[in-house]
Amino acid sequence: MDKENLIELKVLGITRSEVQPGAYALLLENADSTQDEARRIPIVVGAAEAQSIAVNLEQIMPSRPLTHDLFVSMFHVYGIELKGVTIYSFKDGVFASFLHLSNGTVTVDIDSRTSDAIAIALRSSAPIYTTPEVMKLTSYEWRRDGDYKPQRRVRLEDLPVEKLEQRMQRYIAKEEYEKAARVQKIIAQKTNPAQGGE
After folding, report:
1. In the chain, what are the domains?
2. In angstroms, rounded to a whole number, what is the distance separating the alpha carbons of residues 21 and 194?
3. What is the pLDDT of residues 19-44, one digit of tens each?
4. What pLDDT was estimated at residue 196?
5. Which pLDDT score, from 0 to 100, does residue 98 have?
6. What counts of helices (H) and strands (E) characterise the chain?
7. Cα separation of 71 and 198, whole Å?
8. Residue ranges in the chain modelled with pLDDT below 70
């Protein structure tokens, strides 16, 4: 894991989507953000993953270990250390991550769903990173004094990237994470046409 070319992230929290019942949004932010300015990445996650992450963030001790607790316990028993997690890809609206694991002699990268990787990283106090490319494709600029003006109704696909980014910021400010994720996918397709659509 080459930290030199990676951007460290921190977990801000997880919120229930007001747009789609049963959906949740995990919000990440650059670790060197300030109180007034940041780059934020919203990731839509399932109910089980949202619960697992929320339990850890709120320091709730479940009566029985959850799946991610079990993974961390196995790491400890077998002398494996989670060195970090890297969100390395965003393609067709889906994030992908690596778990960087080491037993002191051998280091391996294991592919993982991003929600699982973050749930395990939080339990292991391991750092979370992303690449500059993923940050560029999926993040939006947050400012404390941001002014999110409503846009007229138009087809999202017809808007320029700059306008799409503004619209995504507005959706995030209103906690409309499903809409923000849809706009995020269109931005990715416009900025990297080679990915194509679904």
Report:
1. 3-143 (3.10.690.10)
2. 33
3. 556 778 899 999 998 888 899 999 98
4. 43
5. 97
6. 6, 8
7. 33
8. 1-2, 17-21, 146-155, 158, 193-198
- List of residues 6+ apart from 110 with CB closer than 8 A: 98, 99, 101
Buried b / exposed e along 139-169 (16+ C-beta atoms within 10 A):
bbebeeeeeeeeeeeeebeebeeeebbbbbb
Q: In what order do the strands lie in the sheet with 81-91?
A: 107-113, 94-102, 81-91, 128-130, 7-16, 24-30, 37-45, 140-143
CA 89 from centroid of its chain's CA atoms: 11
The per-residue pLDDT for range 98-122, each reduced to its tens digit, is 999 999 999 999 999 999 999 999 9
Structure tokens that stand for 149 in this block: 């003006």
| Angle 78-88-27 from CA coordinates, rounded to 5° | 90
Contact 165, 140 (CB under 8 A): yes
Sign, CA torsion 186/190/191/196? positive
- What is the enclosing helix (H) or strand (E) of 113? strand 107-113
Cβ(12)–Cβ(54) below 8 Å: no
